[in-house]
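Re-run with default settings, no changes from the original entry. Doing this only to confirm the output is reproducible before filing.
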Amino acid sequence: MPQAPASTLTGPQGLSQPSSTRTVVARAARLAGIAMLVGACAMTAQAQSLVELYDSARGHDAGYQSARAQYEANLAKAAQARAGLLPTASLTATASRAQLNTTSAPESATNPREYGSQTAGLNVAQPLYRPANLASYRQGEQQLLLAEEQFKAAEQDLIVRVAQGYFDMLGAQDNLNFVRAQKTAVAEQLASAKRNFEVGTATITDTREAQARFDLVIAQEIAAENDLRVKQLALDNLSGRTGTAPWSLKAGSALPEAAQPGIEQWVASAEAENPAVRQARIALELAKLEVDKAKAGQKPTLDAVAGINRTLNAGGSNSSAATSHVNGASIGVNFSLPLFAGFALQNRVKETLALEDKARADLENASRSVAQATRVAYLGVVSGQGQVKAYEAAEASSQSLLEASQLGYQVGVRVNLDVLNAQSQLFDTKARLAKARYDLLVGGLRLRQAGGALREENLKPVNAVLTP
């Protein structure tokens, strides 16, 4: 076959590959590059970065909004516990009307008389010794810390969900591009097989092999298009936007280092900072305070009380017919000591002690689970780094295999099926490499989440390797 001048072509990933002939993959690469460039020009005005979509998701995601509302409710609930240590005041007022019938002997005459009474009072009480109220106040402080940890966990979960959805869509887009590039390459190979059959340099088997592979790629393209639509719908729903278009990964960019420091440092950080562990630790403190509150039910209480009352007896009273005003003031202390409540207090103490043991076991379980999840996340990142390097080497090898297969097909030592298989292997390797890179980026965020160190600013290094 005639040979074209040597040239340098750019594939779908922007990688340069030498070619001594006008090979099928070169045309596929050109067409795929043109398609991606046109698509990029159409979407540049509406493409969004990872940070931008995260900011949008914070204002739209229902799960995050629910966590925020719960956090605000917990803040108000924690403030309620302080009321048990503060004074209380109440204003009372009563009004009544009475009729008095007096019967005198011996005439048995009845003398009716009506009179009214109006009373207003102000009463104040200040707890002096109420251990149950003090335990409730300390519980309120712990509940405030618990609310902060719950909201922090919701923030970290949203970061990971947005990143996962973002790179899921990017992976689906890349997969579709690779499938379309492969379809173009197979179509060229099918046309070449038909031409060779017509001139008698190839058998009908080559044509049928290429046709079968072309039909298979068409099915793969349909599945890839649907997968992209599904991934975009998921990201749209998460971010509250329509037609989201994530930035793509920069060609040749170095991915952020995520596996430093070592695994034991990450585990130690997780046991100290992970929101799940911290919530379990706070829950244990709450359980201990609940025991103190139950025991306080058997202790005495002491309150300082004061009151001012004014009574108007209009028309007299039951002992006098003259209208009178009565003013009174009082100050003192109220002492109360529970003696017996049907063993309710004793059983309440037993209940809270059992719940304390449960909270302690829950803390141990949370610590173990988080440590295991952190180790798994760390090993996943390390494995991901190795996979990226391996797939990069496999991509170069697959490219060399394709070029050799094409050259062998031209000189007659390779058959059409060898070229088709080499094309399929190359595009499959490119898709796997892209997915491995995305998984590594998300894995780094998951590792930070497990270690309790995931913050919004951790999205910036990931965002830096993306480009519109």
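Residues 10 and 16 are 5 Å apart (CA to CA). The first helix runs from residue 24 to 43.
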